[in-house]
Amino acid sequence: MSILIKNVTLLPMSGEGTIVNNAYVRIKGQYISEVGTGNAPDGRDDLVIDGSGQLLMPGFINTHTHAAMTLLRGYADDLPLMEWLETKIWPLEDQMNGDDIYAGTRLAILEMIKSGTTCFADMYFSMDRVAEAVRDTGMRAVLARGMVGVGPEHQQALDESRELVANWHGAARGRIQFILGPHAPYTCPPDYLKRVIALAEELDTGIHIHLAETAGEVSDIEKQQGKTPIALM
Ligand SMILES: [Zn+2]
Fold first, then answer.
1. Domain of residue 100, residue span
2. How many angstroms is it from 148 CA to the middle of ligand 1?
3. N or C: which end of the chain has fewer CB within 10 A?
4. Residue 82 region by backbone torsions, left for phi larger than 0, else alpha for psi between -120 and 50, else beta
5. Residue 66 CA to ligand 1 centre (angstroms)
6. 42 falls in which pLDDT band (50, 70, 90)?
7. Are 24 and 138 found together in one domain?
8. DSSP code of 185?
9. Are residues 101 and 193 in the same domain?
10. CA distances from 164 to 51, 99, 159 (A)
C-alpha cells in the first residue's frame, strides 16, 4: 500500500521549529518512504490525499489518561477533586467490570485517533482488558495498573503488576509498554513507594504517578512527611 499526501504544510518536529510549506510525504507499508517539496515524483500510489490547507505532523501523545472513564463523561462535573472521587467516581467504578473497561477504552481510543493522538499513558484497573483494546485497535500505549498502598489490596497490586508486566510489556509488536502505577502519595505511603521503586528496578520498567494534584494534597503531604510531594519523590 502506497499513500501520498501532497500540497501539505509539514511540521516535522525536528527540534528547530521548522515548518515546510507545499510539502509531500509518501508512505509505503508502515514506513515513510519519501518527503519533499513541490510536485511529488509519480509513485503509482494507491491513495492520494490532497493536504491543501492542512497541517501534517507526528501523532500527539496523551501522557495521562484513565481512558475507560470516557464512559463516565458528564456523570459528575464541577466538584472538588476529593469529593468527586469519594462520593461519585470510586463508588461507580466499583460497579464497572472488565467488559465495561474494554468498551470504554475502545471509545477513548476512537476519540484519540479522530483528534490525532496515537499514543497514550493510561493508569486504571482491569488493565489486561485495556491492553486488549490497545492490541485490537493499533494504538500505542504505556499502561499501568493503578496501585493503592493502604488496605488489603496493597500486595495484590504488586503481584498483579508483576504479572501484567510479564504478560504485556512489549506486546502487540512493541506497541504496548507496561510500567508500574502507584496511584498517588496520599494513597501510597513512603514505605510502599519504596517497594514499588524496588519492583520497577527489578523489572527494568518505569513508574506513572499522580503528584501534587491539589493544594490540599501539597499541604497534607508537607504536614505528614515534612516536604512537598515533588520533594518527597
Ligand atoms: Zn489521573
1. 60-232
2. 13
3. N
4. alpha
5. 6
6. confident
7. no
8. T
9. yes
10. 41, 18, 9
Centroid of ligand 1 to alpha carbon of 154 (angstroms): 19
Ligand 1 center from residue 114 Cα (angstroms): 22
Q: Cell digits for 149? A: 498502598
Distance 203 CA to ligand 1 centre (A): 23
Residue 27 sits in the same domain as residue 136: no
pLDDT digits (tens, 9 = 90+) for 110-168: 999 999 999 999 999 999 999 999 999 999 999 999 999 998 899 999 999 999 999 99
Three-state SS string over 115-137 comes to: CCEEEEEEEECCHHHHHHHHHHH
- Domain final position from 21, 41, 56: 56
CATH number at residue 45: 2.30.40.10
Q: How far is the CA of 225 from the centre of ligand 1 (A)?
A: 22
Residues 144 and 165 in one domain: yes
197: domain CATH number is 3.20.20.140
- Rounded to an integer, what distance in angstroms lies between the CA atom of residue 25 and that of residue 6? 7
Cα 56 to averaged position of ligand 1 atoms, centre (Å):
29
What is the rounded average pLDDT for all residues in the chain? 95
Block residue for cell numbers 499514543: 119
User: Distance, CA 185 to ligand 1 centroid (Å)?
Assistant: 13
